[in-house]
Specification:
With 104 residues, the protein is mainly alpha-helical. 41% of the residues lie in helices and 4% in strands. The structure holds a DNA duplex (13 and 13 nucleotides).
DNA sequence: CGTATGACGAGCC
DNA sequence: AGGCTCGCCATAC
């Protein structure tokens, strides 16, 4: 299942770092599979151990159609890990962006 | 098996 | 800069 691959990769994202959907898709060898990544994370159960909050869109923004409350939660979780959001609610991917498993 | 959908992304207006 | 459309991939029906 593609989900498993995605989950395992997301679980490798270190604290204080974030990755984009498209980035993860490329790491899995699917340059255009960003939507699939979102699909996988969407299917995640509530009590999951996967740090889904460290996954943002290509602009370093939080995408959450489940409501503004969830967005605030994700943002709070990240800020607690040291990730900084600017005034427009964006994360500096050049600073907090995860380069991949190789970085570890 | 064909169609529709979605935590996306890049391009166009 | 902001919003809309089209393209891509895997899954659900």
């Amino acid at each position: 299942m593609v989900f498993e691959r995605i989950y395992r990769l997301v679980e490798r994202i270190p604290r204080g770092k974030v990755a984009s959907y498209g980035q993860i898709a490329r790491m899995l060898g699917q340059p255009h599979g960003a939507r699939t990544v979102g699909w996988a994370l969407r299917a995640l159960p509530d009590g999951t151990t996967v740090p889904w909050h460290r996954v943002l869109n290509s602009q370093g923004r939080i995408s959450a159609p489940w409501g503004p409350a969830a967005v605030a939660l994700q943002r709070a979780l990240l800020e607690e890990e040291g990730v900084v959001f600017d005034d427009t609610g964006r994360v500096d991917l050049t600073r907090f962006g995860w380069a991949g498993p190789e970085e570890e």
